[in-house]
Amino acid sequence: MNNAKRAEIFRRLRAIDPHPSTELEYSTPFELLVAVVLSAQATDKGVNQATRRLFPAANTPQRILALGEEGLRDHVKTIGLYQSKARHIIQACRILIDEHGGEVPATREALEKLPGVGRKTANVILNVAFGQPTMAVDTHIFRVSNRTGLAPGKTPLEVEKKLLKCVPAEFMQHAHHWLILHGRYTCVARKPKCGECAIADLCDYKGKNV
After folding, report:
1. Could you confirm whether 204 is annotated as catalytic?
2. For a disulfide at 88, which of 44, 47, 115, 157, Cβ 3.0-4.6 Å?
C-alpha cells in the first residue's frame, strides 16, 4: 500500500469521527490507568460498569490502598481475571505513591515498571492522558493493519513500528482510536462489514464481501 492510499484512509476515518476517544470512562490519568489495566481481556462496557461503582468510592492511589486488595476485588469482581488485576492495581498504587508522588508518570519507562502495565497499556495512557503520538496495537488494530494492507506484520510490535513509520503526522494523534473503532464496529473479525465500509475501495483484503 502506498502513502497516498494510507493518507486517504485516515482522511476518510477522520471525516467520520473528527475527535475520536477511548470508550473507557475516566476523568483523571489515574482513573484511566486503572480502567486500562482492568480492560485486559475484558470489554470496555464491562470495565465501565465496574468503574462506575469503584471510582465514586476510590479514585486515587491513596483511596484504593485504603480499600485494600479484598475491598478492591469486591468492586471489580464482575471483570475477568479480577483477582490478579486487583493485586496489580494495589501494587501499582504503592509505587505511584512511593516513587511518583501519587501521580501517573508520563514516560513509557516509568509506566512499564508498574505491575499490570505492558507496552500496549503504556501506549494507551501516553496517548490518551498525555497527548503523545503513540500506537497501542490491540487485536483490532492488529487485524485491521494486516487485513487492509495498511501495516502488515506478524507481531503487535512489528505492526506498531510500521504504523509509526507510515501514518502521516497529521493523523498520528488519533490514528490508534480510528483503527480500534474501525476494527470494533466495521472491520470485525468474523464477517467484516465491507459493504458499509468507508475505505473498502482502498483496502487490499482479498476476501471482501461487498
Report:
1. no
2. 115
